[in-house]
Amino acid sequence: LAIETALHEALQTGQLYLLYQPIVDIASGALHGVEALIRWHRPDGETVPPDVFIPIAEQSHLIIDIGRWVLGQALRDLALLQRSGLAALKIHVNMAASEFTSSALPQMLRTMSAELAVPPSQVVLELTESMLMRQPEQVKRVMHQLRDIGFEISLDDFGMGHSSLAMLKSLPISSLKIDRSFVRDLPTGERDRAIAQTIVGLGQHLQLEVIAEGIESAEQRAVLADCGCRFGQGWLLGRPLPLQGLIAAFPNGR
Ligand code: G
Ligand code: G
Ligand code: MN
Ligand code: NA
């Protein structure tokens, strides 16, 4: 409970902030988008990682407030990026299950994007397969509403869940993120290469963008390029950066 109180205060007093990790075209290195990653820097100097505080927030209403703050900040930053020569950039935002089952989400996002004059098509909501399991009908309804407005949806950590293929069949998804566990053992992991290649093929056939996560070496990047994987993300291609650092690192998107 102590951490919950501290987290509530963190939200009120501006201890939370977003970093942006580049998502690039693997072949050319051009910036395609960014993934917003939340950070918590406590006044005592300690940083608390999101895999610690997001699950705690998810056990209370706090996740709704945090999620709304993340979306608002990400969309304000997208508006700023558009004025900094990065007009076509997509911004990916990680969603928690309880945010996504809220029937208020589509309308809230519609209002936010209209007020900030950012096109919904540049806002990509990341979900994991496990989030789709809990209330599948409700999640599906929310997804369709979001897609009807023009927001995009990306399946995060693809390959780690339970019924990936059934989901691809019926859900309005526009991209897949190859989980970094399949990237880690490249280039030597023959099975990993086969899996990466298969996901890329699936993406091509279903007209989904494919983004490989966790690219740390030039060799991994080369194998993924060989597999026809168009987009990538990882330490090699770019660390998570504050907004101004991102703008400085990619003047005009290169
Ligand atoms: O950035 P890092 O690798 O520490 O992220 C750890 C986990 O926290 C990842 O699973 C990531 O998806 C999640 N995460 C990062 N930022 C957010 C956010 O803004 N909202 C939610 N719900 N999860 C986030
Ligand atoms: O669960 P999700 O895919 O949203 O997690 C994203 C997290 O992955 C980011 O918070 C970031 O800290 C982490 N990450 C990004 N690139 C790399 C990488 O190249 N290697 C590793 N190990 N982690 C990464
Ligand atoms: Mn993610
Ligand atoms: Na992921």
Automatic annotation (TrEMBL):
Protein name: Bifunctional diguanylate cyclase/phosphodiesterase
Superkingdom of this protein's organism: Bacteria
Residues of the full protein shown: 485 to 738 of 740
Domain EAL: 1-254
